[in-house]
Each structure stands twice: as C-alpha cells, then as structure tokens.
Amino acid sequence: MPIVRKSRADVDMPKLLAELAASRPRTEAEIEAEAEEDGGAMTDEELATAVVVYPPPTPAQVRALRASLQLSQAEFAHRFGFSVDTLQQYEQGRRVPSGPATTLLRVIESDPDAVLRALRMPPRRVAAATGAHLDRD
C-alpha cells in the first residue's frame, strides 16, 4: 500500500476514528507483514537514533495557553517576546509556529516563570492550568 501524506487540516478526524473503531484489530503477524511490505520501515537501530519532532500547536492550543495564563494578546506577546501580529496570526491559523516558536510555546506552557526568569522579567503568578495542554505526540 502506498504512503499518502496529508496535513492535519486534510484529515477528517471523526471519520478516521469511526473507521478505526469499525475495523478489526490486526494480528502481530499482519502488522509484521505490512512492515516488511513497507520498504521505509525503520530498524531498531534507526529508531534508537531517530530525532523526535514535535508538531506545532494548533490555533486553539495557542489561544488556550494564553487564556490559561489570563493574558491579553498584547500582554502575552510583550511578556514572551512575540509580536502581537505574530501571536494573532498563530491564534487565527494564518501562520504556523516555526520549530523554535513551537519550543518556546511548549516551555511557556510547562513553566512560564522559567521563561520570564530567562528573559529577566519579573515573574507573574499564573492561574492554575485550565487543562489546555499542547499535544506531545
């Protein structure tokens, strides 16, 4: 079976989940056979040296992160070194955070005060997380 690459926006997630739920689970033998068919399957050695790539956050995740910190767009942008325009574009889905911006957003989510300390800004007590977390796939 050929590999078809799709962006996250191209995937109909409810349909995909329904198809997966309706299909019977594959056996280990079937999985092994499919892996052998796939010429691009990774060996254990390749897998051990593979580099983890974190997907960028969705617009909803960026908005939820900012909301969980109880900051306006201008406050969040100023506090963490983004331009207001860039933050607005992330939140509206017109622009996707790059690798470094994705990393910064993940660190802000994990420990915003650590970012503020690194930027030598006074810490701001952050409200308890609202459960809006970036996926760590």
Fold and architecture overview:
Helices cover 52% and strands 0% of the residues. The protein is built from 8 helices and no strands. The longest helix has 12 residues, at 99-110.
List keywords for this structure.
137 residues; mainly alpha
Could you outline the blueprint of secondary structure elements for this entry?
Elements lengths: L12 H10 L5 H10 L6 H5 L10 H10 L4 H8 L3 H9 L6 H12 L1 H7 L19
Helix pairs in contact: 4-6, 5-6, 7-8
Poorly predicted runs of 5 or more residues: 126-132
For the CA atoms, what is the radius of gyration? 20 Å
Mean pLDDT: 84
Look at the helices and sheets and give the structural class.
Answer: mainly alpha
Kindly report how far apart the N and C termini lie. 24 Å
Report the portion of residues in β strands: under 5%
Number of helices: 8
Indicate the percent of residues in helices: 40-55%
Instruction: Kindly report the oligomeric state of this protein.
Output: single chain
* Total strand segments: 0
| Main β sheet profile | none
- Write the element-wise H/E pattern from the N-terminal end onward: HHHHHHHH
Specify the overall morphology.
Answer: elongated
Describe, in short, the structure shown.
This protein is mainly α and 137 residues long.
